[in-house]
Amino acid sequence: MCIEGKDHRRFRRVPLPGTPTKPVKWQLSSDGHSLTRTYHTVNPPGSKDRTFAYDRSGGPVSKDGPFIGFWKYNWNESDPSIITYAPKGDLFTFTAPNGVASERNCDGKDHPNENLGSGFAYSCQFTGEHTYELTAKQNGKIVSVITRKVSDDGRTMVATTRNAEGKITATINLEKIK
Length: 178
Description:
By secondary structure, the protein is mainly β.
């Protein structure tokens, strides 16, 4: 499936190996022009639903496969994705939009990533005053590198994902909320 992001670059979402941690519901509108994806996440102390909306933006259309085609993310109809980052001693705490927090030791060394299972590791480091880099590995080989760069005025952040070959696979622009 191709999804067109806010900056109009197309990127492909690649499923991660393992068991899904949250049920996902896909709902196609009766006219076939909009698609809604709802995640139901169960995290102590409660559960939370997050909704993502997409509008059809071309591509092939099939009566046998109504999900086939290109879908553009609809920022106005989707729940906001709020991500928080905070230093905690030598650790860097990242809280995902679903409310799950994880601590990362950003010393540039490999650390096991228990969230993804055996054989997965991460390393992270601050490569500059405004730049954070996270490298994901599987069985010792780089899978992806995500670079997050905060603007000099601190109001925006650009997250760029590169695959093992260094090719950009996604770019996301984020705005700081007050």
